[in-house]
Design goal:
Largest sheet of chain B: none
Helix content of chain B: over 70%
GO cellular component, one term (chain D): plasma membrane
Number of helices of chain B: 3
Distance between the termini of chain A: 52 Å
Family (chain D): Belongs to the CPA3 antiporters (TC 2.A.63) subunit B family.
Order of helices and strands of chain A: HHH
Structural class of chain B: mainly alpha
InterPro entries (chain D): CPA3_antiporter_subunitB, MnhB, MrpA_C/MbhD
Number of helices of chain A: 3
CATH class of chain B: Mainly Alpha
Structural class of chain A: mainly alpha
Shape of chain B: elongated
Oligomer: heterotetramer
Radius of gyration of chain B: 17 Å
Distance between the termini of chain B: 59 Å
Membrane topology (chain D): Multi-pass membrane protein
Strand content of chain B: under 5%
Chains: A mainly alpha (about 100), B mainly alpha (about 100), C mainly alpha (about 475), D mainly alpha (about 325)
Main location (chain D): membrane
């Protein structure tokens, strides 16, 4: 049962990642790309972390997964912010055509 | 097809790519990166050599060697990059 | 509880502690450096006594023993290299004391000592090592310290040369590392004993090729010599003497040593090595003839001399490497001493005259006679005139080549000798001729302590030729290089 | 059908090779570094697949993390020095003539032949051939630690490891010798969000680094990985300008650089008594000594890597003084 739940969660998470990546490749400028990437990947990461947590053997492992999720989420949010900030300041981000 | 075969060929290929880069790159930074690729290729070869069909444990000695290689490479990279930065500073002030 | 220490471990650890102390206490760096060199030389002398008394000695570090652990081993050849390093290093340090004494060189002085002592650690480590991965780490210690010494002056030319040297060095080390990987794949061990007697399979041939090319890059064998002239010509004089006299010898020593252990697939490969050497002799000689600056000429002469050592090494013939390595070893020792003397003398000449343009050497009223005399003495050994050590090395090379009927190697050696006579004559002409701009009275420079070190080195290069027989029998101690005892 | 993981391996291998090629061929230097970082992380993943978690940790933390940071810092500096910092498409930094295609092709053919030779040699080598495993298995009980890689690094081949720390020391001495001065390129303004993240991450990094060091005795981890993670603390402090290196701090910094080497070498020498040789730790104290060495080495590695990132000796320079050798 746990395996099935985990598999579903991880598969869904992967779909979000793929969607985010497609957005990164297809969208026209930095802000749109960030929009696709951060949201989709944030959700994908959470789903995969949840799925892996179902497979984890000990509470300690679950705790570590939660920690990893927290820090990766915080780091990617910060990175997204930094990229957007740089793009806005330097004016490199928006495509004008 | 076992992982050691796949990744062994990967390692040799990465080494070869690094070789091309080290010989043809003109940009200083790119040449450093090419050398780093070569070192990752060499690391692959040793890690592959250490691999044993599970459940047998891998040979730990090459692992230790690769860790040493990684630390040595970061040291060499740092010195090369410091030289590059200093040269650029001198060149920029000479031009002004 | 008494600590029992072997002189082998001291030869590596004393310079290491010295480097640490010199880095932490920059104000006392010179003092620490000298104390370290004296102690290191003492350790090497102790080791030489042991080797003379007992033959080759070994030390299994950590008590594990090869192949799991790393063994140190000292035989005649390694002690000879250690002694060369100590003696040349000590004398170059004396010269460095003088040439780095100015107040504007405080910074150079502060960094010269830790870098040089780290270099010494690496070189002594190479000469005692019996494990190819350990050799890789040691040559990296040497590489980083040597690059640091190359760029000591901080000039743009030196930095550019240092960067090229760094690329060549890293690249060579990585080729070596890849070769180590192939050795492991085939043999599952990395000590010298494991290499002996292994059949030359594909992986080992690849390893041999990678390791050889990597080392050829490090020792600047033609056509991989491109980095050397600029690096050695643009460094400050003591650094040049260390780089040209000692650092390239470390990689040469590894070639010499590994050639005894690694299986050679065919003699043709050895001929190829000899051809590369011959190319270096000719090309290095021609470039030295064309060089406009004295230090550049000396640097190109290093390229030619390294080629000659490889020719000596390659004229194996029927007897194999068992004879030819001795000629190569003698030439390594001779070149190490004479080239250090020559670079120091060239540095003195440049300091006194203010430039080192060969064409204008005779246009200055200042005549640094002692440095010029030293330069000429060193040139005698490098050209290979009797009774110098260089002569003995060349003689042993030609004798072996003639005995084996390899007249082409004799021809290359002769051509190299003639070229060296020609390019050194360009310098001598500048020393001797007064006719172009006749200064009223050539101002002869007095005797300076700074000239003592290069002069001693040059005299050694000549005088050791008279002691060639004991030197030769010393480097044969522990031969054939077998398993660590 | 074959193991589904083989497909994963093949895809990963393809991605690694493609990223290596892409990072060398992409024109923009920033993209080059980013592609290299992804390449490094995927290589680390491949090494996990080859059951080498220690190597993967080291490659991710040092080979990719620290190296990537060094490269990015250098690129920033180069763009600042060459005046192309604000430009949109600052491709190269040093103005170099583009390499003629013919040269690249010649090199590629040449290197292709070499690579082909290496492939043949690799395929000819015995798969899972002889190794050190039986020797290590036999010696492990006497090593003082439970994790084999730590046993090799700090006991069986500790001489290599000592020299590796020496290489790191030589690097920092050389870097300090090459560059000096307080600061040249302006630090990028990062904003409050970044500062907040740094405050959040700092304690976590310290905990993770110390944990990696501690766990090294029985599980993947150890001094080098722990030291690299702790070096990230230094990087964060330097980037947020929470710590600005001062000339007065050089003494302490020098002490920290040499601490690991000195402690390691001293222990190695001092254990040589009572019939033991250098590096032969007495069995009863082996674990304590190894942990002591690892602790000191970790401090040195962390400080040294951070100093390599900072990249210059903090000396106050007089105005216009660029070459005070």
């Amino acid at each position: 049962m746990q395996d099935v739940v985990a598999a579903v969660l991880i598969t869904t998470g992967t779909v979000f990642f793929i969607a985010g990546t497609v957005g990164l490749l297809r969208f026209p400028d930095i802000f749109c790309r960030l929009h696709a990437l951060t949201k989709a990947d944030g959700l994908g990461l959470a789903l995969i972390a949840l799925g892996v947590a179902f497979l984890a053997a000990t509470p300690g492992a679950v705790f570590r997964i939660v920690l990893i999720w927290f820090f990766v989420a915080a780091a990617s949010a910060t990175c997204g912010h930094l990229v957007a900030r740089y793009a806005r300041r330097s004016g490199a981000g928006v495509r004008h055509d | 097809m076992t992982p050691d075969l796949i990744y062994g060929l990967t390692g040799v290929a990465v080494f070869g790519i690094g070789l091309v880069g080290a010989l043809s790159a003109q940009d200083r930074l790119r040449r450093v990166l090419a050398l780093k690729l070569c070192s990752v290729g060499a690391g692959f070869l040793l890690v592959v050599g250490a691999w044993r069909e599970p459940p047998a444990a891998p040979d730990p000695v090459p692992h230790a060697l690769v860790i040493t290689g990684i630390v040595v490479m970061v040291s060499a990279t740092a010195v090369a990059l410091a030289l590059i930065r200093r040269l650029q500073t001198l060149e920029a002030t000479d031009e002004r | 509880m008494s600590v029992e220490i072997s002189p082998m471990i001291l030869s590596v650890f004393v310079p290491l502690f010295g480097a640490i102390a010199a880095f932490v206490l920059p104000r006392a760096a010179a003092l620490i450096g000298f104390a370290t060199l004296v102690l290191t030389s003492g350790a090497v002398a102790w080791l030489a006594r042991d080797v003379l008394a007992a033959g080759a000695v070994g030390l299994p570090l950590g008590g594990w023993g090869a192949p799991l652990g790393i063994d140190l081993r000292a035989d005649g050849l390694s002690v000879a290299m250690l002694a060369l390093t100590s003696v040349v290093g000590f004398l170059v340090s004396i010269a460095a004391l003088d040439s780095l004494k100015g107040p504007e060189q405080a910074r150079q002085r502060q960094y010269f000592w830790p870098l040089w002592l780290l270099l010494l650690t690496g070189m002594n480590g190479v000469y005692l090592s019996t494990d190819i991965f350990n050799l890789y780490v040691m040559i990296e210690v040497i590489a980083l310290a040597a690059v640091g010494l190359t760029v000591l002056s901080g000039s743009r030319a030196a930095l550019q040369a240092g960067l090229d040297y760094m690329y060549a060095s890293i690249f060579g080390a990585l080729l070596f590392l890849m070769g180590v990987g192939f050795v492991y794949l085939q043999l599952g061990r990395l000590d010298f004993a494991g290499l002996t007697g292994a059949a030359p399979t594909g992986a080992l041939i690849a390893a041999l090729a990678l390791i050889f090319v990597g080392l050829a890059l490090k020792t600047a064998l033609f056509p991989l010599h491109f980095w050397l002239p600029a690096a050695h010509a643009n460094a400050t004089a003591p650094a040049s003497a260390l780089l040209s006299g000692l650092v390239v010898k470390a990689a040469l020593y590894v070639v010499l040593r590994l050639a005894q252990y690694m299986p050679f697939p065919s003699e043709n490969l050895l001929t190829l090595v000899g051809l590369m050497g011959a190319g270096a002799v000719i090309w290095g000689g021609v470039q030295a003839l064309r060089a406009e600056r004295l230090k550049l000429l000396v640097a190109w002469s290093t390229v030619a001399q390294i080629g000659l050592i490889f020719v000596a090494f390659a004229r194996a013939g029927e007897v194999g490497l068992s004879e030819s390595w001795k000629a190569a070893a003698l030439l390594i020792l001779a070149h190490g001493i004479a080239k250090a003397a020559m670079f120091l003398a060239a540095g003195r000449i440049k300091d006194e005259i203010g430039h080192d343009v060969i064409r204008d050497l005779d246009r200055t009223p200042i005549r640094p006679t002692l440095a010029q005399f030293t330069f000429a003495l060193a040139a005698i050994s490098l050209i290979g005139l009797p009774p110098s050590l260089g002569f003995i090395g060349k003689w042993s090379l030609m004798e072996g080549a003639m005995a084996a009927g390899y007249w082409h190697w004799v021809g290359v050696t002769m051509a190299g000798t003639l070229l060296s006579v020609a390019y050194f004559s360009r310098v001598f002409a500048g020393f001797l001729r007064f006719d172009r701009v006749r200064a009223p009275v050539g101002e002869h420079q007095g005797w300076a302590l700074a000239d003592a070190a290069p002069l001693t080195l040059a005299l050694m290069a000549i005088g050791l030729g008279l002691l060639a027989a004991p030197v030769l029998s010393f480097i044969e101690i522990g031969y054939p290089f077998g398993v660590a005892p | 059908m074959t193991d589904p993981l083989v497909i994963f391996d093949l895809l990963l291998a393809l991605a690694i090779v493609a990223l290596a090629a892409a990072s060398l061929s992409v024109r923009d230097l920033f993209s080059m570094i980013v592609l290299f970082i992804i390449f490094g992380l995927l290589s680390a993943l491949a090494w996990v697949r080859l059951s080498a978690p220690d190597v993967a940790l080291a490659e991710a933390a040092i080979g990719t993390g620290v190296t990537g940071a060094l490269l990015l810092k250098t690129l920033h500096h180069l763009r600042f020095a060459s005046g192309t910092l604000g430009q949109k498409a600052a491709y190269g930094v040093t103005p170099v003539a583009p390499v003629p295609m013919a040269v690249i092709m010649t090199n590629a053919v040449f290197c292709g032949l070499i690579t082909l030779g290496l492939v043949v040699a690799f395929l000819g080598a015995p798969a899972a051939g002889p190794g050190f495993d039986p020797l290590v298995a036999e010696a492990m009980p006497q090593s003082g630690v439970e994790h084999p890689v730590t046993g090799v690094l700090l006991n069986f081949r500790s001489y290599d490891t000592l020299m590796e720390v020496v290489v790191l020391l030589a690097a920092v001495v050389a870097v300090w010798q090459i560059e000096r001065g307080l600061s040249e390129a302006p630090a990028p303004a990062m904003g409050e969000v970044w500062q907040g993240f740094a405050r959040l991450a700092l304690p976590a990094i310290v905990v993770v680094g110390t944990y990696l060091l501690w766990v090294g005795a029985e599980a993947p981890g150890g001094a080098f990985q722990g030291g690299a993670v702790l070096a990230a603390v230094g990087l964060l402090l330097l980037l947020t300008r929470a710590y600005v290196p001062q000339p007065a701090h050089r003494g302490i910094a020098r002490g920290a650089f040499v601490l690991g080497t000195a402690a390691f070498a001293l222990v190695a020498l001092l254990v040589a008594s009572g019939g033991r040789v250098a590096f032969e730790y007495p069995l009863d104290h082996a674990k304590t000594l190894i942990l002591l060495i690892e602790g000191m080495v970790t401090i040195s590695i962390a400080v040294t890597l951070a100093a390599l990132f900072h990249g210059r000796e903090p000396v106050a320079l007089a105005k216009g003084d660029r070459n005070d050798t």
